[in-house]
Write a structure and sequence with these properties.
It contains 15 helices and 19 strands. By secondary structure, the protein is α+β, with helices and mostly antiparallel strands. The strands form 5 sheets. Strands 1, 2, 5, 6, 7 and 8 form a 6-stranded antiparallel β-sheet that branches. Helix 11 packs across helix 15. The radius of gyration is 55 Å and the shape is rod-shaped. The structure holds adenosine-5'-diphosphate (ADP). Adenosine-5'-diphosphate binds next to helix 13 and helix 15.
């Protein structure tokens, strides 16, 4: 049994637990992958919106260039340069202030004495445009390296300043940063991709023909669009300075941020309906305040989106950020998954447990049965051998003619007949049991009188009982007790009960047979065989009806048997619609009662 348990644990339980663990792990990985895919999807939305916004800003910058070219075609260059602020304002709503500057730093427009906006612009930018001051501006990497080179050549100090400022923290921290493998995620997700750099206007524009300059003044974003009509574009962007030299002009405009935002707002949308229901996408400014969102009523910790993408140097530190509309959803689905897995694993473990219990139980039953069958074979052999030996011995004595006393002869013949009856009873029991097990046992039901069957059977068995010193006491009614039954089968039940009463007897050799009728619960007859024998051990009351079961084994008690008598008797009782039961007899001994339904209809 121990060996079976070990094999069972190794072959079934251990692999099942390993499988459960593996499935748990793979499901967890799946969940992680799904979350990753989801955030990749959201990241894709943020990336493409950020690109769109940067693209639209660049388009507006190009719009300025074409406006300037158109104005240059229509107007005389110097005259246009002097009135550019007023003209571009009228022509192009995005312009807050228009400016024109020569490369040597002479500001032709706006006038320092003009509108308040123009005055403010003059204060903020005149020294920078005149190349007399470096300003902190935001550049893309290409511009940055060009400026860096120039700075390095020009001034070692400023290059140091530049280097120290290249690392700047982002204003939002995405919860799901898509980190490149080389960098630790924290570093990468926190560091901005655009960096401030100090440069003079002339160095900044370099050889480019147009561009955008972004900077913060008092923490407020300022955008300058500029363009420089170059030969071939059709514009006449040269003027003569006081020395008579030709000087190239740079046209530009300070952009009205609110108006630019009005143009950008329509871009902030998510076209995919499924995504619309899942995330809110917002354009957040450099202080992580939402400027435009897809879900105006939605609020969140704007600094902590699920994913975010920086727009770049055209809107430094502005980002497109995506937030889960229902942040608990991820946790919920993870929780649901955990619950499902937990449930699955518990069901699995329970199934294994119950299965093991059932198998072990069945195994135990099978082992007991095997043992009982082995006992049965040896018991039956013994049962067959004992009467055969007696029969042989006494028949030989009689055959030899040595026993001449007629009394003795009669006694020997009596023994031979009793032993032969015992033998045939045993063989009948075994054969009938085998037939019942196979479902081949046939009964010949007829209406018969149970009192007659009982009386006749008892009469047939009485001599054997008396020979064994038993006294029998009967209470069988004179009136017929009608039952629908197979007479032989009923008499077999009674003989088995009498034989047991005889076998398992004690000092008091008294056997009583009672036949009574009862109207309730349904009209039935009850035939009871009572003895004053050794009784049935406690806890064996039901087991004695099981096949091969013997409560008193032959080794300890010396009483032989097949363990089939009661099994067969109960099978017969049930086949008749009745029951065979056991109860302890008051004052010691056993009482077996056969109950059969009554047949009251007269013959
Ligand atoms: P067996 O051939 O062993 O007698 P049975 O099926 O007739 O087989 O009985 C099963 C067991 O029930 C017996 O082995 C015995 O232990 C117990 N038993 C049956 N009848 C009696 C009885 N009258 N008194 C005590 N024990 C009994």
């Amino acid at each position: 049994m121990k060996k079976v348990a070990i094999v069972f644990i190794l072959a079934v339980i251990a692999p099942s637990l390993v499988l459960a663990w593996l499935s748990l792990r793979s499901l967890r990985d799946q969940q992680f992958l799904l979350e990753r895919q989801q955030s990749l999807l959201y990241q894709g939305v943020a990336d493409s919106l950020a690109k769109d916004i940067a693209g639209v800003i660049v388009e507006h910058q190009r719009e300025l260039s074409s406006k300037v070219f158109a104005l240059l075609r229509e107007h005389e260059t110097l005259e246009l340069a002097k009135t550019f602020d007023e003209r571009i304002q009228k022509e192009w709503p995005l312009a807050r202030v228009g400016f024109v500057v020569t490369l040597s730093g002479q500001i032709l427009s706006p006038s320092p004495l003009g509108r308040p906006e123009a005055k403010a612009f003059y204060t903020d930018y005149s020294r920078f445009l005149a190349n007399r001051e470096s300003l902190e501006v935001y550049l893309n990497t290409k511009q940055m390296s060009a400026v860096q080179q120039q700075n390095e050549l020009k001034d070692l100090e400023s290059s140091k300043r530049y280097a120290s400022k290249t690392q700047q923290l982002r204003n939002v921290v995405p919860a799901q940063p898509l980190s490149p493998t080389k960098l630790p995620p924290d570093d990468w997700s926190n560091v901005s991709k655009v960096a401030p750099s100090e440069a003079e206007f002339r160095h900044l524009i370099g050889d480019e023909s147009e561009g955008i300059i972004a900077r913060f003044i008092d923490n407020k974003l300022n955008l300058l669009f500029w363009c420089r009509p170059v030969p071939g574009t059709g514009g006449k962007a040269f003027v003569r300075n006081e020395d008579g030299k030709q000087e190239q002009l740079v046209f530009g405009a300070q952009i009205s941020i609110p108006r630019l935002l009005e143009k950008l707002k329509p871009l902030i949308r998510v076209s995919e309906p499924v995504l619309q229901r899942e995330i809110c996408v917002a354009l957040v400014d450099d202080l992580a305040r939402p400027v435009a969102t897809t879900h105006p009523a939605f609020t969140a910790d704007w600094k902590r989106p699920l994913v975010a993408t920086e727009i770049g140097e055209v809107l430094p530190h502005w980002e497109i950020a995506a937030y889960m509309l229902n942040p608990a959803k991820l946790a919920q689905s993870a929780h649901a998954l955990k619950l499902t897995i937990g449930l699955l694993v518990s069901v699995l473990v329970m199934a294994i447990g119950v299965g093991s219990w059932l198998i072990v139980g069945d195994l135990k039953r099978q082992l007991t049965l095997v043992r009982q069958k082995t006992d049965f074979v040896s018991n039956v052999s013994h049962e067959l051998k004992t009467p055969l030996t007696s029969i042989r011995m006494f028949s030989e004595l009689l055959a030899d003619g040595r026993v001449t006393d007629p009394e003795k002869q009669r006694s020997y013949l009596g023994i031979i007949s009793t032993e032969a009856a015992r033998l045939s009873r045993l063989i009948n029991n075994v054969l009938d049991f085998a037939r019942t097990e196979k479902g081949e046992k046939k009964y010949h039901f007829i209406r018969c009188d149970l009192s007659t069957v009982a009386r006749e059977t008892l009469d047939g068995y009485r001599p054997q009982l008396e020979a064994g010193g038993f006294t029998t006491d009967t209470e069988i009614p004179e009136n017929p007790v009608w039952v629908n039954a197979d007479k032989d089968a009923l008499s077999q039940v009674l003989v088995n009960l009498l034989s047991n009463a005889e076998k398992y007897s004690d000092v008091k050799k008294e056997i009583r047979i009672e036949l009574t009728t009862h109207p309730k619960p349904l009209p039935h007859a009850e035939l009871r065989v009572l003895d004053r024998g050794i009784g049935v051990p406690v806890d064996s009351e039901e087991k004695i009806f099981e096949k091969f079961y013997r409560a008193h084994d032959s080794l300890n008690t010396g009483i032989t048997g097949s363990g089939l008598g009661l099994t067969l008797a109960r099978q017969i009782a049930r086949a008749h619609g009745g029951e065979l039961g056991f109860e302890r007899r008051q004052g010691g001994g056993s009482c077996f009662s056969l109950r059969l339904p009554l047949q009251n209809t007269p013959p």
